[in-house]
Amino acid sequence: MNRLFGAKTTAPKPTLNSAISNVDNRIESIDVKLAKLNAELSSYQQRLGKMRDGPAKNAIKQKALKVLQQRKMYEGQRDQLQQQSWNMEQAGMMQDNLKNTMITVDAMKTTTKELRKQYGKVDIDKIEKIQDEMADLMDMGNDIQESISRSYDVPEDVDEAELDAELEALGQEIEFEGLGESEGVPGFMVDEAKPPDFIDVPPEPGKVKEAAG
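That's the Charged multivesicular body protein-like protein 5 sequence above. Prediction below.
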């Protein structure tokens, strides 16, 4: 059976990166061959520049022509391989972008699932109740502040007779202070000039002036 259909291969399938690497290696090999052909053409060109027309020069021309044909063939192969490598690199970039997109989508799914779990634990009614309680407490605090900072009004129901009595008392105090000052003693020292209560006989006025002088 293996002879008819061949044995099943167990070798790993080539990846895109390995295919690109193989193509790049072939391009490098062709570049080496092209460098040799260019060197050979340069040598023929120098020889032809020094030779005269004749059979020998024509033979060198034929060799140079074959080398030029080989160079064009290798250049064509190199261009094809470079295009293949570029196409595979583009496919690789698309593959990487797709992987990154899938990773992003998976991350978004996981995040959405977690957010649903977290928001599911939040009770909107409790939040509204807390907000209402906070508003009530703020209003209560404002009422307390207004009550504490309230100014007390002075009673305005003052009787005219009471006012006249107060004015008369103030007038008597003013007259009493003026009387003390008219005798040469300031009003605030009137009581101090009075002899103490424990002295029976007050001093004579002349001696008081001498002591004061």
